[in-house]
Design brief:
InterPro entries: Xyl_isomerase-like_sf, Xyl_isomerase-like_TIM-brl, Xylose_isom_bac, Xylose_isomerase
Strand content: 5-15%
GO cellular component, one term: cytoplasm
Oligomer: single chain
Number of domains: 2
Shape: globular
Number of helices: 16
Strand order of the largest sheet: 5-6-7-8-10-12-13-14
Bound molecules: D-xylose, nickel (II) ion
Subcellular location: Cytoplasm
Main location: cytoplasm
Structural class: alpha/beta
Radius of gyration: 24 Å
Largest sheet: 8 strands, parallel, barrel
Cofactor: Mg(2+)
Distance between the termini: 42 Å
Helix content: 40-55%
């Protein structure tokens, strides 16, 4: 049976096509800067948004019409696996990502829960073998169940810490079993509501202990996928410890975890933290920890994680620019659609349209970013803007040949007024617009 209206695999038809079930920009085998689009982008479908969510919001019930909802329990879990592989086939997407609790229902004991998981993981493994689809990453959901009310690795309750460890241990076994290329830690409840009852020092030390245990266990079982931390400043926690890329970087450094972790950066989390997505990608890239991305976008008028499908070409261009400049591009990571259809887009076909929209937005962003790089647009801007550090006193500063005394002597000897150059911001923005429309 088909969960997506018997839609046939989507083909590239080019920007002029009026067929809504076609790619306008995503042409998987097209080579851009020496690599196919498919290999640059490594798209992934997120299980939780596309197969587990029902379209509910805090004020209203689910609206999504999904044929798998005729089942429940393990039958529902199995139907979702079918639906997932059907969608991957329709979209020509090679990767998917899931939380443990997305794929199988919890039982009444941890033993039962794990048995449910094992059964579905075996089914997923068969599907992967039959289709060649791959797991970009898996993760443990340690935020939905009420036991995590005070956190998981940063809880005040040691029993919860132990339970969380057991959960991640199992998730790592499954990561290994399915050949996951990464494993993600997103700490939705790893934060606090008020310092009045919080031992921040202990909580952060415990988080580091927990992550070191994960590193040790992965080594023990021979799981070689990349560990990723996904920063987010808030929601559901009021203050989340992995606030943004820079905060997470300093945490990793302090606790000697930097060799084992990179970041999974999400567009909407960046904006919640008061940054652009490209800011987060730049911070990660400059520090060698850009691992993967969760592709979505927020809404400027809303202050929460709306997880909309990414359609803003300006944003996807700037994101792809950072990824193209990253050593080895997105590497073992990918462009994971951590995005959901709006509550008003409740038909199954909307899930297909939404992914096409996101894939085309990233493909177009890739094309424009590649052209900006080929034409050295930003290189030229930076060369001109920072030219003062190429010769004279600037070159001495960069070479480490200057100190306060030599700089004071220089400043005293140059009595004329200092001249600055225009930043030419409007001209630069107009140039980017030209590339967006013509590249
Ligand atoms: C929530 C996060 C979550 C992670 C995986 O805001 O984006 O979905 O990607 O736990
Ligand atoms: Ni995410
Ligand atoms: Ni998110």
């Amino acid at each position: 049976m088909s969960y997506f209206d018997n839609v046939q695999p989507i083909q590239y038809e080019g920007p002029a096509s009026v067929n809504p079930l076609s790619f306008k920009f995503y042409n998987p085998e097209q080579v851009v800067l020496g690599k196919t689009m498919k290999d640059h982008l490594r798209f992934a479908v997120a299980y939780w948004h596309s197969f587990s969510a029902n379209g509910s919001d805090p004020f209203g019930a689910g609206t999504n019409i999904r044929a798998w909802d005729q089942y429940d329990g393990m039958e529902l879990a199995k139907a979702r696996v079918e639906a997932c592989f059907e969608l991957l086939n329709i979209l020509g997407v090679e990767y998917f990502a899931f939380h443990d609790r997305d794929i199988a229902p919890e039982g009444s004991t941890l033993q039962e829960t794990n048995a449910n998981l094992d059964e579905i993981v075996a089914l997923i493994k068969d599907k992967m073998n039959a289709t060649g689809k791959k797991l970009l990453w898996n993760t443990a959901n340690m935020f939905t169940n009420p036991r995590f009310v005070h956190g998981a690795a940063t809880t005040n309750n040691a029993e919860v810490f132990a339970y969380a460890a057991a959960q991640v241990k199992k998730a790592l076994d499954h990561a290994k079993e399915l050949g996951a290329e990464n494993y993600v830690f997103w700490g939705g409840r790893e934060g606090y509501e008020t310092l009045l009852n919080t031992d921040m020092g202990l909580e952060l030390d415990n988080l580091a202990r927990f992550l070191h245990m994960a590193v040790a266990y992965a080594k023990e079982i021979g799981f070689t996928g990349q560990f990723l931390i996904e920063p987010k400043p808030k929601e559901p926690s009021k203050h989340q410890y992995d606030f943004d890329a820079a905060t997470t970087l300093s945490f990793l450094q302090k606790y000697d975890l930097l060799p084992y972790f990179k970041l999974n950066l999400e567009a909407n989390h960046a904006t919640l933290a008061g940054h652009t997505f490209e800011h987060e990608l730049r911070v990660a890239r400059l520090n060698g920890i850009l691992g993967s991305i969760d592709a979505n976008q927020g809404d400027l008028l809303l202050g929460w994680d709306t997880d909309e499908f990414p359609t803003d070409l300006y944003a996807t261009t700037m994101a792809m620019y950072e990824i193209l400049l990253n050593e080895n591009g997105i590497g073992s990571g990918g462009v994971n659609f951590d995005a959901k259809v709006r509550r008003t887009s409740f038909e199954p076909i909307d899930v297909v349209y939404a992914h096409i929209a996101g894939m085309d937005a990233f493909a177009r962003g890739l094309q424009v970013a590649a052209k900006l790089i080929e034409d050295k647009v930003f290189d030229n801007i930076l060369d001109a803007r920072y030219g003062s550090f190429k010769s004279g006193i600037g070159a001495d500063i960069v070479a480490g040949k200057a100190d306060f005394k030599s700089l004071e002597a220089y400043a005293l000897a140059n009595n004329g007024p200092i001249k600055n150059q225009s930043g030419r911001l409007e001209l630069i923005k107009a140039t980017v617009n030209q590339y967006l429309t013509n590249a």
